[in-house]
Design a protein that fits this description.
Layout lengths: L2 E5 L2 E4 L7 E3 L15 E3 L2 E3 L3 E3 L8 H10 L2 E5 L10 H10 L2 H11 L6 H13 L5 E4 L1 H14 L3 E5 L17 H7 L4 E6 L2 H9 L4 E4 L9 H5 L5 H19 L5 E4 L5 H9 L4 E4 L1 H4 L9 E3 L13 E3 L6 H6 L11 H12 L4 H4 L4 E3 L9 H6 L6
Parallel strand pairs: 6-7, 6-13, 7-8, 8-9, 9-10, 10-11, 11-12, 12-13
Antiparallel strand pairs: 1-2, 3-16, 4-5, 14-15
């Protein structure tokens, strides 16, 4: 990767995002119905490699159950409204209906309510009783206690997620979470996030995690890049962290999946993430548009535990279809935000990839004009990429 001078004696390397690359069709093509999109984490195999993010406007108990029955995973935020209120539906409805100028104060008051530990166990139990996996998340400061409760309640996967995760965290005000000790003591598979570099990814993998979330600030509801000015575009992030995964595998023979988290708004973005080395992806905004989403088409407040959002931030995205339509189609919109699994299968077939592992070896080209080339009519009619 080339480095360039951006000033006197100051170099910077060039990094890439999804809009700047394209995938090259293969010499051999495969019927999309014959490709295998499954992936594994913690010894368990899942049909859908697209995870619903821990956003209060996306995942509640009902959504987690619906996603699980379809063969996927949906992450329940243990620090959101689901564990603060006995009847979170009433709170979500109130926020969804609030006028924009009232939203900030309302959401601030909503999150002022303390987290109730009994509700953590209750929500997990509700999901497990439906016969689907329960995957939950918390920030490092609450991970020890919440993991203990979640494990006793029967949770299947525990995610420790913060804006930036590192093995070496220094603080004079509190004791940092010892990831190595934590991963060893917790009986559930532990996923850690988020990171964006080869070195940090390797550190976290060596700590003993079962999965790694990569991406800082690319999510639709995350303001980290704007507020803090930090982050690396997702193409470079995924490739670098996948390289760390491969290095770790060569040394230990343990294959730990890399999950690209955020920055994907279309099926094409998701396909590119897998081509860059992802084993699975985590998506929020696409699922927020589903009829099953508790936010009813709204992103609001502390959308994810690691999103550096001012309390009350909300962006309306609107309901466009059911969860089944978003994952498997048929698509009712032309912007690439539905039939995500169909898009992945078709892309894999066109590049000649039988499975995710082969998809990760797809030829990639730098193509900054891929979004605009020949799209004059789409722009004029405001359809597809021209919107």
């Amino acid at each position: 990767m080339g480095q360039f001078y951006i000033g006197v004696e100051r170099k910077a390397r060039r990094c890439y995002g999804f809009d700047e690359i394209a995938l090259v069709p293969g010499r051999i093509t495969i019927d999309p119905s014959d490709v295998d999109t499954s992936w594994s984490i913690g010894g368990k195999k899942f049909r859908i490699p697209i995870i619903a993010a821990a956003m209060d406007g996306v995942v509640d108990v009902k959504f987690a159950i619906a996603m699980g029955k379809l063969g996927g995973l949906a992450v329940l935020n243990l620090e959101g409204v689901q564990t603060r209120y006995e009847n979170p539906e009433e709170v979500l409805e109130k926020i969804a209906m609030a006028a924009p100028d009232q939203a900030t104060a309302l959401v601030q008051s909503v999150y002022a309510e303390p987290i109730k530990e009994k509700l953590i166990a209750k929500r997990i139990d509700q999901i497990k009783k439906a016969g689907v996996p329960s995957i939950v998340s918390a920030i490092p400061q609450r991970a020890d206690r919440f993991a203990e409760i979640a494990q006793e309640a029967g949770a299947d996967i525990f995610i420790v997620q913060s804006t930036v995760s590192t093995v070496k965290h220094i603080s004079t005000k509190y004791k940092a979470l010892d990831f190595k000790k934590f991963c060893k003591s917790v009986k559930m598979p532990v996923v850690i996030g988020n990171c964006v570099t080869y070195e940090v990814a390797l550190d976290l993998l060596n700590a003993g995690c079962s999965g790694l979330l990569v991406g800082i600030g690319p999510g639709a509801a995350c303001t980290t890049r704007g507020v803090l000015g930090i982050g690396v575009p997702q193409v470079t992030t995924t490739i670098d962290c996948a390289a760390a995964r491969d290095t770790f595998y060569k040394k230990t023979k343990r294959y730990i999946p890399i999950i690209t988290d955020g920055g994907m708004t279309t099926g094409g973005d998701i396909c590119k993430a897998f081509a860059c080395g992802a084993d699975a992806v985590m998506v929020g905004s696409a699922f927020a548009r589903s009829k099953e989403a508790p936010g009813k088409g709204n992103h609001w407040g502390m959308a994810t535990p690691h999103a550096n959002l001012p309390r009350g931030t909300r962006v309306r995205v609107g309901v466009t279809g059911t969860l089944d339509e978003i994952l498997f189609g048929p698509a009712k919109v032309d912007d690439g935000s539905q039939n995500l699994m169909g898009a992945l299968q078709t892309s894999m077939g066109n590049v000649g990839a039988k499975n995710i592992s082969q998809m990760q070896k797809t030829e990639i080209i730098i193509a900054p004009s891929i979004q605009t080339e020949g799209k004059v009519f789409q722009v004029a009619q405001r359809v597809g990429m021209g919107k």
